[in-house]
Amino acid sequence: MTSAVVTDDGLTGALDRLVDRVHGADFAVVLSPDGLPLGGSRRVEAKLAEQISGVVAGLIALGLAATRTCDAGGLRQVVVQMARAFLFVATIPNGTILTVRIAGDDMKVGDMAYEVALFVGQAERHLPITLGPASSATIGDTGAHQRHR
């Protein structure tokens, strides 16, 4: 049986556990649909949360443009591969956005991809907020959106 993503110790505790489960994970942040930080793991200070918010806004914009161009359903995830790190940006169906960074020579990228998917699958039931996407631009939708004509 899988445990709840967010328990009595709240969103910070859930994000700490997410980071702790994967070797090489540095931090995790949850943002509102409009980019406001809602919570972060223990290594996230205000300056980092602000910087991540700006980066994620750009990545989400690019991802949404790709979904419109490719007409393949809603945006689920953007992954940025760098020389020494990966940044996972995943949409949660309630409109919030999970961002996780993993780095190091022996990082477990596959494990992180699994943990991100698990968190996203469970988070909507347990996050202490209920938000709709900022627009009908198909963030995290199931593909049931209206097609371009």
Relevant terms:
globular; disordered C terminus; alpha+beta; 3 helices
Descriptive report:
It contains 3 helices and 5 strands; from the N terminus they run αββαβββα. By secondary structure, the protein is α+β, with helices and mostly antiparallel strands. A hairpin with a 3-residue loop joins strand 3 and strand 4.
Quick synopsis:
By secondary structure, the chain is of the alpha+beta class.
Class by helix and strand content?
Answer: alpha+beta
User: Could you report the average pLDDT, rounded to the nearest whole number?
Assistant: 82
Distance between the termini: 45 Å
Shape: globular
Task: List the SSEs and their pairings.
Layout: H1 10-21, E1 25-31, E2 37-40, H2 46-70, E3 77-81, E4 85-91, E5 97-103, H3 109-126
Antiparallel strand pairs: 1-2, 1-5, 3-4, 4-5
